[in-house]
């Protein structure tokens, strides 16, 4: 049996450009940043991966509030994602994501968090992929093994 049966060999040209602007903290306990990402994917074997080449732009902004007296952080923002395929426009899509996250540091080794995202996906009118509009909710906990290693336990629903 060929071990590469699920991974066809492909020569990919991938260009990624990223810009992140983290604004200075003019207001204590608030952090604000914006980012832009362009992701362009092309294949040398055009016939084998026909319809898979695309260009995607992601624009996002986030604000984080860290309560000055309680071990609580609240974050929100928005994300816009635009994906355009080079040869099959039926899969072109626009996605929007509005997060609202709360994190509570129970003690130095444990965090508890609630992450909610209102998401929409809109595809071209003749696309075989169905549009989506709804909430994603995740409850979780994080245990710090050491400062740079963690274990997360989460439960989510869409």
Output the number of helix runs: 0
Strand content: over 45%
Give the fraction of residues assigned to helices: under 10%
What's the count of strands?
8
What report would you give on this structure?
0% of the residues lie in helices and 66% in strands. It is mainly beta. It has an eight-stranded antiparallel β-sheet, with no helix packed on it. The two termini are 38 Å apart.
What's the quick description here?
This protein is an all-beta fold.
Question: Layout of SSEs?
Answer:
Layout: E1 12-22, E2 30-43, E3 54-66, E4 72-85, E5 93-107, E6 110-123, E7 132-146, E8 149-157
Antiparallel strand pairs: 1-2, 2-3, 3-4, 4-5, 5-6, 6-7, 7-8
Based on the model shown, name its key terms.
single chain, 158 residues, eight-stranded antiparallel beta sheet, elongated
């Amino acid at each position: 049996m060929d071990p590469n049966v699920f991974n066809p060999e492909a020569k990919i040209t991938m260009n990624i450009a990223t810009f992140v602007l983290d604004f200075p903290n003019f207001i204590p306990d608030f952090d604000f940043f914006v980012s832009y990402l362009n992701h362009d994917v092309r294949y040398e074997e055009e016939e084998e991966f026909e319809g898979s080449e695309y260009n995607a732009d992601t624009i996002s902004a986030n604000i984080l509030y860290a309560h000055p007296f309680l071990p609580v952080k609240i974050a929100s923002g928005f994300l816009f994602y635009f994906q355009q395929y080079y040869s099959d426009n039926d899969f072109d899509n626009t996605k929007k994501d509005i997060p609202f996250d709360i994190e509570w540091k129970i003690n130095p080794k444990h965090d508890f968090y609630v992450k909610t995202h209102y998401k929409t996906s809109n595809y071209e009118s003749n696309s075989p992929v169905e549009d989506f509009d709804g909430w994603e909710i995740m409850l979780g906990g994080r245990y710090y093994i050491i400062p740079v290693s963690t274990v997360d336990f989460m439960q989510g629903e869409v």
